[in-house]
Amino acid sequence: MRLDRRALVLAGLLSPIAAFAEQFAGKYNPLADPVGDGLWMVRGADEAIGFANGGAIANSAIIATDAGAVLFDPGVSREHGLALGALAQRLTGKAVGRVYVSHLHPDHAMGAAAFDPAIVHALPATRAELERDGEGFSDAMYRLLADWMKGTAVVLPQGDLSDGQAEFGGRKFRLLALKGHSGGDLALLDEATGTLIAGDLVFHDRAPSTPHASLPDWRKSLDVLAALPHRLLLPGHGPIDRDGSAIAQTRDWLDWLEATLRDSVAQGFDMSEAGELPIPPRFAALKAARYELQRSVSHFYPALEAELLPRL
Amino acid sequence: MRRLTIAALSSVASFVVAANAQAAPVDPLKSPMWEHHAARLFGSDKIVFDPRVAVRIPEIAENQRVFPVTVDARSVPDVRRIVLFADLNPIPVALDYRLAEAEPFVATRIKLDQRTPVRAAVQTADGTWHVGGAWIDAAGGGCSAPPVSRVKGDWADHLGEVRGAQWLEKAGETRLRMTFRHPMDTGLVENIPAYNIEHLSIRDDSGKSLGEMEIFGSVAEDPAFTVVVNARGAISFEARDSAGLRFPGKVGA
């Protein structure tokens, strides 16, 4: 113990940053990629939430309007939301005037803490799910992210969005009230640029996560998105989709996942064995595939056993 | 079996056992509780860390109430007993499986109350314990939060529902899966006393025992067990809980 502490002090004298790198959070430094006229994508890390990435794993979008910037998904923490807000100000010359929260998951929702709740909007189902799960998410994020979360309290969005046309600062949006990745999934089509901001209904080259998923609902929502004419697609995780492949990739993974887990129960495998099953080569480009498969086993397996194992 | 039960639950008993213990080998996982558990579980028996004892777990504890663990020690000859435990759980031992006509393989789900080593110790016929395991990070509350069915209030409606099936593992071997609806109350949640399945017995068609398992409150709610037995044909099993209720099942009849 004493040796460790002395070694730490010595290391601290030589290299203070390295010595304290695990104690204190760094600074969020979100970067924007221009996507179209007055629209930018901010890429999250294609990883699991962890201290090393500050939980900044979800994509966000920034849209310029006459009434202020629109921020679609404000990040994981108050500091993250503030950094995204400052980026929006630099890019658009205006402060954030409206925030959309696509769904309840903390990597997308908890950065709302950086904004006036009056300008933060979401689907009614998302507000209800955050009322139910927000404090639990908060506990989990503080445990994983510690100092990155400082000052972050659960801010409930206005649950006032519905399917249809919306307009803010002279810019027209089509809002889609969907579900399947969670109980409420908001997607937004920016009409000026034909950009579909899909939230976590669409993952791209990053395996989909399923903690609150209903696969039948998710597939129906993918049908809606695929039928909606758009030029570009911003997924909730992973790179921008320019060739229309991300919706099909997300569906392919969900179909494979469900078939694989059902087959695994039918073959008599237990959960940890199911989590070790081979992942087909066509998913080789998907980041975090093994991690998400094992999470999905946890989400779906007990219910599949209750459905498929004979009652004695 | 009784001695392990007492030792598992009583620190007084563990000191008595510890007094006779020889020094345990240095723990590759550097667990703060290794020496304590080694002394109380294995007494003066020989202990070796053995990579052939595979403890297969996911890379993330997605749900600390239901953490899957598969123990596969089939490359260790003459295994007679498997003890599955998590060093830093308030109820460390999850199950103690005595093999009669069974392969050294068991899969189940356990609760995790914090970051902890998850280990299997298998005892061979010469008395030596072979130990394998790994650390897993986990949020708290797996043992000290109420079961989902307690929160929903429907646990009694489904208590004792048994599901199961068998598969051919390989020639002469049967893979048997069994699930039970049971709250598996730990006794660590306010105003809910301990109430758990505590024994599982597996028999062939002639009534001969294939394996016997002592089960503790750190096994997950609605427990599931997978074993491989050296028998074919009909296999029957029966779980018994701490209130004396019995939950029988038969597969391959």
Automatic annotation (TrEMBL), chain A:
Hydrolase as UniProt keyword: yes
Keyword terms of this UniProt record: Hydrolase, Signal
Domain Metallo-beta-lactamase: 57-237
Signal peptide extent: 1-21
Organism domain of life: Bacteria
GO aspect biological process, one term: antibiotic catabolic process
Record bears the keyword Aminoacyl-tRNA synthetase: no
One GO molecular-function entry: hydrolase activity
Any Pfam family matching the protein: Lactamase_B
Alphabetized PANTHER family for the sequence: ACYL-COENZYME A THIOESTERASE MBLAC2, METALLO-BETA-LACTAMASE DOMAIN-CONTAINING
Family listed: Belongs to the metallo-beta-lactamase superfamily. Class-B beta-lactamase family.
Name used for this protein in its record: Quinoprotein relay system zinc metallohydrolase 1
TrEMBL record, chain B:
Keywords assigned by UniProt, alphabetized: Signal
SUPFAM superfamilies: E set domains
Residues annotated as signal peptide: 1-23
Keyword Translocase: no
Gene3D superfamilies: Immunoglobulins, SoxY domain
Residue ranges constituting the Ig-like SoxY domain according to the UniProt record: 40-143
Listed InterPro entries: Fuse-rel_SoxYZ, Ig-like_fold, Ig_E-set, SoxY, SoxY_sf, SoxZ_dom
Protein's name according to its UniProt entry: Sulfur-oxidizing protein SoxY
Residue ranges constituting the Sulphur oxidation protein SoxZ domain according to the UniProt record: 171-247
